[in-house]
């Protein structure tokens, strides 16, 4: 059952913005003109949805007005809600994967193409930072059912490799109920296999242990989350938090986490309303349907993998 309150009655600006990539994977960013909110910062092009406009329609209009390009197709990528002093912005980020025309700053603003690495060094609106953390992640996070689902460490490693062979690039290793010595040896080899495949793996456990085992980040339960006052790992690692309540969503934002796992407990309508309160991109837990999850505001999906017999 949902323990989230109704969305806050505060005025919220609905903004559609675009991730547009060139053939090298660089993203088109624009510098906000003088005199506007957050002037001088680099942003994803877009703007406010007008009454009655869908996010796609708003993007078509905004990118024509701001960049002189015609959008032929866009689809949802992620959404998040950021509270600026005196202003709440709900960002609906869409991937624009078909467009024509020559992009240029029609309002006199600078526009340029940036790799994700370079974009992370640019001054950008605070709302955009969590987004930059996740844009290079595979949007399907595979969570570990726990060692007790496997006969041995070797059986677990065999399954881990099979997932990598199948193209999985974002995985979790669960430290729960695992003998520390076994965990140490298995985690070392999991990390090695993941590195070779170019995959990222997180430890579900204590942040300090994740760091010591060389994980690419940590996945926190709400119990660990509640004991934290600040982000437990530097920004070159990932901090994913599994939450259920509105208070936990807020706490995840306060410790400056990167990504939320949120269950689809009471249908997609309820899920979407919860995502609308999230300051961070969200993964729909226990879900395999990426397209549906994205159409309800999620960035991706997370599910527990089933041990091969
Ligand atoms: N387009 C865009 N807006 C963003 C981003 N991040 C972010 O916080 N915002 C905020 O979302 C709001 C978007 O409004 P906007 O100024 O682009 O709206 P607009 O194009 O319709 O301009 P206008 O109101 O002058 O007509 C601003 O408050 C802006 O600061 C982003 O990456 N792209
Ligand atoms: Mg704009």
Shape: elongated
Q: Tell me the strand order in the biggest sheet.
A: 8-15-14-13-12-11-10-9
Major pleated sheet: 8 strands, parallel
CATH class assignment of the largest domain:
Alpha Beta
CATH topology of the largest domain: TIM Barrel
The helix content is 25-40%
CATH superfamily of the largest domain: Aldolase class I
**What gap, in angstroms, lies between the N and C termini?**
34 Å
How many domains, in number, for the residues?
A: 2
Radius of gyration: 20 Å
- Average the pLDDT over all residues and give the rounded result: 93
Classify the secondary structure makeup into a structural class: alpha/beta
Protein described:
The chain has 309 residues and is α/β, with parallel strands linked by helices. The chain folds into two domains: 12-126, Alpha-Beta Complex (Nucleoside Triphosphate Pyrophosphohydrolase); 140-304, Aldolase class I (TIM Barrel), CATH 3.20.20. 29% of the residues lie in helices and 29% in strands. It is built from ten helices and 15 strands. It has helices at residues 55-67, 116-119, 129-134, 153-165, 180-197, 207-212, 222-226, 246-254, 267-275, 290-295; strands at residues 12-20, 27-31, 42-43, 46-48, 70-84, 87-100, 111-114, 140-143, 170-174, 200-204, 217-220, 238-242, 259-263, 282-285, 300-304. Strands 8-15-14-13-12-11-10-9 form an eight-stranded parallel sheet. The protein starts with 11 loop residues before the first strand and ends in a 5-residue tail after the last strand. The model is unreliable at 1-9 (pLDDT under 50). Residues 13, 15, 17, 36-38, 43-44, 46-48, 62, 82, 89, 91, 125, 127-128 line the site of 8-OXO-guanosine-5'-triphosphate.
């Amino acid at each position: 059952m949902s323990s989230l309150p109704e969305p806050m009655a505060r005025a919220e600006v609905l903004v559609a913005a675009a991730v547009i990539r060139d053939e090298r994977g660089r993203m088109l960013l624009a510098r906000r003109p003088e005199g506007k909110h957050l002037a001088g910062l680099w942003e994803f092009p877009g703007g406010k949805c007008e009454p009655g406009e869908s996010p796609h329609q708003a993007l078509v209009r905004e990118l024509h007005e701001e960049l002189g390009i015609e959008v032929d197709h866009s689809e949802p990528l992620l959404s998040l809600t950021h509270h600026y002093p005196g202003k709440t912005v709900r960002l609906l980020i869409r991937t624009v994967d078909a467009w024509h025309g020559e992009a240029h700053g029609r309002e006199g603003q600078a526009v340029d193409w940036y790799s994700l690495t370079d974009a992370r060094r640019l001054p950008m609106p605070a709302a955009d930072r969590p987004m930059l953390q996740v844009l290079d992640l595979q949007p399907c996070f595979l969570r570990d059912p726990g060692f007790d689902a496997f006969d041995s460490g070797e059986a677990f490693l065999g399954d881990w490799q099979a997932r990598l062979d199948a193209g999985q690039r974002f995985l979790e290793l669960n430290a729960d109920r695992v003998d520390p010595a076994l965990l140490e040896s298995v985690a070392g080899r999991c990390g090695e296999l993941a590195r070779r495949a170019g995959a990222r793996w997180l430890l579900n456990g204590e942040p300090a242990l994740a760091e010591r085992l060389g994980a690419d980040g940590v996945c926190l339960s709400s119990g660990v989350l509640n004991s934290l006052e600040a982000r437990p790992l530097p920004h070159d690692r990932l901090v994913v938090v599994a939450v259920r309540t509105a208070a936990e969503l807020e706490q995840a934002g306060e410790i400056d986490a990167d990504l939320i796992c949120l269950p689809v407990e009471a249908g997609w309508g309820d899920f979407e309303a919860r995502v609308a309160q999230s300051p961070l991109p969200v993964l729909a837990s226990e879900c395999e349907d990426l397209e549906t999850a994205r159409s309800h505001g999620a960035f991706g999906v997370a599910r527990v993998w089933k041990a091969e017999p």
